[in-house]
Design goal:
about 425 residues; 14 helices; about 20% strand; five-stranded mixed beta sheet; RNA-binding; Rossmann fold
RNA sequence: GUGAUCAUAGCUUAAUGGUAAAGCUCCGCUCUGUGGAAGCGGCGAUACGGGUUCAAUUCCCGUUGGUCACCCCA
């Protein structure tokens, strides 16, 4: 876990602002579920067999003996909130969005942290209309686009439903069985994949090992095994995207790690960094069943804020702070020091930013500080000015300075900053 | 969770089984009413715990943390 330092904060503000703007345009309403929930929610919702729950859930017992967990993702909380607050009686579907920290207890490495921020959009309820899948994908894409990140690719796939996925799974296993247990020299897939075939065959397609890359070229793809309704749903998604000439790439090998996805799955990646997804999501109609309810049609996306910021930083290493509208106040002597303290208050109602180094006493060190701050003007008040009720207005760029009545100084600074 | 690798000042790096060095940054002085330069000075470190040893920052073990890969994921 790490600090978000003042130097990085501008990036965070930029991302959050862009997210709010995009979410607002597509009519998503913010929701802020608790960071801590009953562990049960994620164990059932996210899925007992997922790594997120098996290995990465931060859980502990409260004094009241409840088993609670720091949220590893938002989606189960949103479904919980939807059910708990009777949102099925609101106009359907309900569109909600979120921005906040999530926690996963896994080894940190490039682009991965134990506490990280997710922004996300979810459409819950109503019909399982492919237009919602499309809208989720488009809004997530527009958000990233809003940040001027270019070269982003949307990878899209459908992994079917309960009716058709088992059939595909079987086909895939049959295909790979031929390559399993070969001798070392003839090996066509990596060791990990030998294991995967049995446990989670869909994941084999995700493997980055060179050996497996070749083998998977001829592997059966899920799209060929979709049932009729899944096929027409996916076709629907593509048609909506095509309608607005939205760029996407069909990625028949894309599968996602969470149990609850069905039909549409997608990832958004930056082309420079193909192994690191900026966002991922899909349809998750079955998730509500873990609450003992019948399936609720839902689709959503979550975006990795740190990863987006990482890309942002590589694009424009420095976010320039506005150098305009900055004024530095300098004092010489105790009397003047009090006056400057009062003067700061007078500037409060303007948009002018006041900088100072009131703890320093020498003129030199204060001017040095002003120099570093790159303010346009410095206002200097000393003993002489204190008694004269005046103040020195110094232009930091050319060093020119003049004396102004202290009563007029706020107006005078305003006027000059305008020019 | 598995494997590899690393850990010296705020940052970047040096060195040694026996006083830990430098550059940058920061603070101050040269310059008690005037900034950017220069010179001088100052603050500041061997991650933590144990072992071997007269002596450990150095060698050994463990822990923690970072990095990388795997697993998995945002």
């Amino acid at each position: 876990m790490r600090d978000i330092l003042p130097a990085d904060y501008p990036y965070w503000e930029k991302v959050e602002k862009a997210f709010k703007k995009t979410a607002e345009f597509y009519n998503f309403k913010f929701i802020e579920p608790p960071i801590l929930e009953r562990a049960e929610l994620f164990i059932r919702g996210t899925g007992v067999n997922t790594d997120i729950v098996e290995k990465e859930l931060y859980t502990f017992k409260t004094k009241g003996k409840d088993l609670v967990a720091l949220r590893p993702e938002f989606t189960p909380s949103l479904i919980r909130a939807y059910i708990e607050h009777g949102m099925s009686r609101l106009p359907q579907p309900v569109k909600m969005c979120y921005f906040g920290p999530v926690f996963r207890y896994s080894a940190p490495q490039a682009g991965r942290f134990r506490q990280f921020y997710q922004a996300g959009l979810e459409i819950i309820g109503g019909e399982a209309d492919p237009i919602y899948d499309a809208q989720i994908i488009v809004s997530a894409f527009r958000f990233i686009e809003e940040l001027k990140i270019k070269k982003i690719i949307v990878q899209l796939n459908s992994i079917g439903c309960r009716a058709c996925r088992p059939g595909y799974r079987k086909k895939l296993q049959e295909y790979y069985r031929r390559y399993a247990s070969l001798t070392k020299t003839k090996r066509k897939i990596c060791k990990d994949c030998e294991r995967r075939i049995k446990i989670n065959p869909l994941r084999v397609l995700d493997c980055k090992n060179e050996l497996c890359q070749q083998t998977k070229e001829n592997a059966p793809v899920s799209l060929d095994y979709l049932c009729l309704s899944c096929r027409s749903h996916f076709k629907g998604v593509l048609e909506f995207l095509d309608e607005i000439s939205f760029p996407y790439v069909l990625s028949p090998h894309l599968v996602r790690g969470l149990d609850y996805y069905n039909r549409t799955v997608f990832e958004i990646i930056e082309s420079g960094n193909p192994s690191l997804a900026l966002a991922g999501g899909g349809r998750y109609d079955y998730l509500a069943e873990s609450f003992g309810k019948r399936a609720i049609p839902s689709a959503g996306v979550s975006l990795g804020v740190e990863r987006i910021i990482e890309v942002l930083k590589s694009l424009s290493p420095i976010i320039l702070e506005k150098t305009k509208d900055k004024v530095f106040i300098i004092h010489a002597g105790e009397l003047a020091k009090k006056k400057t303290f009062a003067l700061i208050e007078e500037f409060r109602k303007t948009n002018i930013k006041i900088f100072e180094a009131l703890g320093k006493e020498s003129l030199e060190s204060q001017l040095k500080a002003a120099d570093r701050e790159e303010t346009k003007f410095a206002l200097i008040i000393g003993q002489k000015e204190f008694y004269e009720e005046s103040i020195i207005l110094k232009d930091m760029e050319n060093g020119v300075q003049e004396t102004v009545s202290i009563k007029k100084i706020v107006e005078e600074v305003k006027k000059r900053l305008k020019d």
